Structure formats: C-alpha cells, structure tokens
Amino acid sequence: MADVKAAVRVEHPDIVLTETVTHDRSASVKSVSEAGTDPTSGKFFYHVESSDFRQFEDGLRNDHTVGEFERVIETRDGKAIYSFEYTDEAKVFSPVISTANGVVLDMENDENAWIFTVWMPERTNLADLWDNARRHDIDIELLRVNEYASLGTTDAGLTDSQREALLVAFEAGYFEEPRDATLGEVAAELDISQPAAGGLLRRGIERLIVSSLMDDSQAPD
Hints:
Elements: E1 3-11, H1 18-23, E2 28-31, E3 44-49, H2 53-61, E4 66-74, E5 79-86, H3 94-99, E6 103-110, E7 113-120, H4 125-135, E8 139-148, H5 160-172, H6 183-190, H7 194-213
Antiparallel strand pairs: 1-7, 1-8, 2-3, 3-5, 4-5, 6-7
C-alpha cells in the first residue's frame, strides 16, 4: 500500500484558538512541531504573527478553549512564540488524526478555519479521518493529497537516519497529543543525543513536506 500526505481544512467553533483568531483577523498561527516534548506538561506551543499582540491576547482571554497562556519569545518583526494550556471545552483535532493512524506534520490557521498537513500510512485511512471528524461534528475538506510508496520502502528525500527516527518516534507515540513519549525517550531508543534526535525529526518532517506537498517550483534549494 502507498502512504499519503494530505492537507485538510477543518472548521468548528470549539477547535482550539478559533475564537482568538476570529477576534484578531491579522493573526497567523502555526504549530511549533519540535516543542512541547514533556507529555505531562499540558502546554502547547505556537508561532504567532500579529499586527497587535494586545488584541491577540484580548482574544485569548475571552477564548473558551484557552486556559493559561504565555508569550514566551517576541521579536521586532511582529512574530512571537506562545505557550497555551487548553480548557476542557477545547476541541483538539490532533487526536482525531491519531485515531485514524495519522501524524500531524503541520497546522496553521486559515482565518477562522485550520489547515492540517497530515501523513497517513494508507490512503484508506483518509476515510477513517473523515468518519472521526464527522463524529466530532467537525467540518472537513480535502485540499490536496499526494500518494507514493511507503515511508518504510522509499526515501522521499529522507536519509536512513531520518527515516528510522521518524518511525521510532511514531511507534513510541511522540506525535500523539498529548505526547506518549518525550524527545529524550526517542533519543534513548535511537541511542543518540536529544539534540541530534530533534534535528533528525525536524529535517525528516521538512523533507516529507517538501517531497509530498510542494511542486518543484516551491521546493527550497
């Protein structure tokens, strides 16, 4: 069977941060995939761009899906990294993807909707994803899908080390939300340092995105 990379657009008022980005239309929110390695912390990290962080944070304070939040890092070009804790009212889409055997590669807002880039081991898992989304009353739309030979049998631009790191992390539950394994545990399984494991995962995910979701004109040099 061939695995797939797909981009899906999902929408529901209870998906985390939806109320915030609706309040601040200038906001662009994107997940920080390499952060939040402690599965017990309850904190989730996002890159945020906004023309007015005060307005963005006003939205956070009135967002029923967000508990505690912190602006961790801010630069002068209107970019920041925030950490969030979700409330019990929050609808988190990542477990819906995990239940369908998928892995979230990327997440960013599209106005008050969300674009998820996901990897699925088989094309048939997309049907499971649709069923899971509908059970949660989430509107879902397929934007694009790329299919090729399995991750275990093709390079997709991956090195052997990157492929092994991704497979070990997947099997350990590192891509679950909340995570079932820390980056340190993945590194220990690979018998390498934690920074080295993080680098392999980041570069591997980047190669998967480039190979499956970008055409030649979009791919970086």
